[in-house]
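Q: I have 214 residues here and want to know how they pack in 3D. Can you give me a structure?
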Amino acid sequence: MAKQLDYHTLREIFSRFQAAEPEPKGELEHVNVYTLVVAVALSAQATDAGVNKATRELFKIADTPQKMLDLGEEGLIEHIKTIGLYRNKAKNVIKMARILVEEYGGEVPNSRAALQSLPGVGRKTANVVLNMWWHYPAQAVDTHIFRVGNRSGICPGKDVDAVERAIEDNIPVDFQQHAHHWLILHGRYHCKARKPMCGTCLIRDLCQYEDKTL
């Protein structure tokens, strides 16, 4: 685990990320907040590309909790059976739809606690939805952010909760809204698990990673 980088270094890192991509976006396709929740829940242990391929047709016919209930679990499975853990995910999506209809009037709640009470929605999923839909500076820590944070010193921590706190505590407020997107994209396309692309990295002179591939 790298040592936590100081304020000035973090400002420089995120200034570079911002200059390279001023408005980073999540890569999961959705048409409203409900389909965003479903897409993020389906993305656990699956790729965004795989989820998008499965949900393109699904969201044309089931873009509200009631329509998802009308489709039913078996109908849903037909759309998402290419995604890992699809049977369990289908059960959770249908349970979630029923709760949203019965307890929330078909609307998606916008508090972390309420979101996390829904089947198949953990803290990471709740944070993605709060950030992407309601523009709340929640930090959704995935494997990419955990790796980048600990390699570089941007947001080191022994577990995802510690990394989330490190982002919130140390990254300047003006970068908080997009911080997790910049870190995810950096981990997905540059600071890869097996072969990090240090030679073309925007922040290699500021990163503490000792085994750089130059």
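Q: Anything worth noting?
A: The chain has a mean pLDDT of 96. The first helix runs from residue 7 to 20.
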